[in-house]
Amino acid sequence: MKFEKHSELQNTTRIKEFILLGFGNTENLDTLFFLLFLIFYIVTLSGNFLIIILVMMEKHLHTPMYFFLSNLACLEICYTSTTIPKMLAIFLSGKKTISLWGCILQMHFFSTLGATECYLLAAMSYDRYLAICRPLHYVTLMNGKSCILLVLTSGIIGFLLISVLTSLLTQLTFCNQYKIDHFFCDFTPLIRLSCSDTWVIERVALITSFLGIIPTFFVTVSSYAFIMQAIMKIQSVNGREKAFSTCSSHLTVVSIFYGSLMLVYIMPTTGKFRDMNKSFSFLYSILTPMVNPFIYSLRNREIKIIIRNILC
C-alpha cells in the first residue's frame, strides 16, 4: 500500500503555477473591473498618503493618536499593494497565472499585514480609552516609547503568527488542481488545492486566527464600550453628539473589518460561507483600507482645518 501511494505521488505532476479565477468569467468586463479597482487603489493611496504627509508636516499633530494613525495609513498602503496591483495586471493583460512561490509570498505578506492591523487597531482603541477615560494618567502611560513599543509589538506578533503558517505551507505538495477560486492568494483557497495531508496546518491556522482576531477584537470593542460610557456622561448635548458620531463611525469600520475576518478565517468554510468568502474578503482587503482614512482622520476637525488652510 505504501509503495502504491508513493508511486501514485510520483506520477502526479507537481504544480508550479496557479490560475486565479478572480470573480469568475468576466472577460467582457475586464476593462470595467480594471477601472473600478484602479479607482479603489488611487483613492486608498491618496487618502493614506495624505494622512502620513500631514502628520509629518504639522508639529502639533505629533501626538500618540496621530502617530498611530500615520502607522495605520502606512500599513494600509502596503496591505492593498500586495493584492490590487496583481489584480490590475490580470484585468489588463488577461493573464491570470501566478507562480507557486509568488502565491505563497502574496499570502504571507497579506496575512502578516492583516494580523498586524488587528493588533494596531487594538492599540489605537486603547490609546483613545486612556485619553478619554484616564486623562490624568494618559501622558505617563502613552509616551513616545510606549507608542513605538506598541507598533513594533503589533508587527512582530503579526509576523510570527503568519510565519508559522507559511513555513507549514511550503512543506505542502500541490498537484493536479491549479485553479484558485479567489481574486488573490488567500490561505484557505490555496490549501484546498494541496494533495498533502492538511490536517495539521488547518488546526494551526485556526489557532493563529483565534490569537490574531479574538483578543484584539475584545480589547477594541471593550475600549470603545468604556469610551461610549464616558461620552454619555458629557453634559453638553452638542459635544456628546460629536463624540458619539466619531466613535460610532470608528466602531462601524472596526466591526466590518473584524466581522468579515471572523467569517472568512474562523467560521466554517463550507456551504453558504464558502460561496460568500470572496464578498467578505473584499470588505476587509479593499473596502476597509479605502474608507479608513476618511473615517479615522478626514472626519477629524484638526485634519480638516489643516487641509482647508493648505488649500486656501
From TrEMBL:
UniProt keyword annotation of Membrane present: yes
Q: Which InterPro entries match?
A: GPCR_Rhodpsn, GPCR_Rhodpsn_7TM, Olfact_rcpt, Olfactory_GPCR
* Top-level taxon in the UniProt lineage: Eukaryota
Q: What is its main location?
A: membrane
What membrane topology does the annotation report for this chain? Multi-pass membrane protein
Transmembrane stretches in the record are 32-55, 67-92, 98-126, 147-169, 204-227, 248-267, 279-298
Ranges where the G-protein coupled receptors family 1 profile domain occurs: 47-296
Pfam families for the chain: 7tm_4 (PF13853)
* Gene3D superfamilies the record matches: Rhodopsin 7-helix transmembrane proteins
Q: Which UniProt keywords apply?
A: Cell membrane, G-protein coupled receptor, Glycoprotein, Membrane, Olfaction, Receptor, Sensory transduction, Transducer, Transmembrane, Transmembrane helix
Q: What Gene Ontology terms describe where this protein resides (cellular component)? A: plasma membrane
- Entry GO MF terms: G protein-coupled receptor activity; olfactory receptor activity
Compartment annotation: Cell membrane
Q: Which family does it belong to?
A: Belongs to the G-protein coupled receptor 1 family.
User: What PANTHER family does the entry give?
Assistant: OLFACTORY RECEPTOR
Could you identify this protein by its name? Olfactory receptor
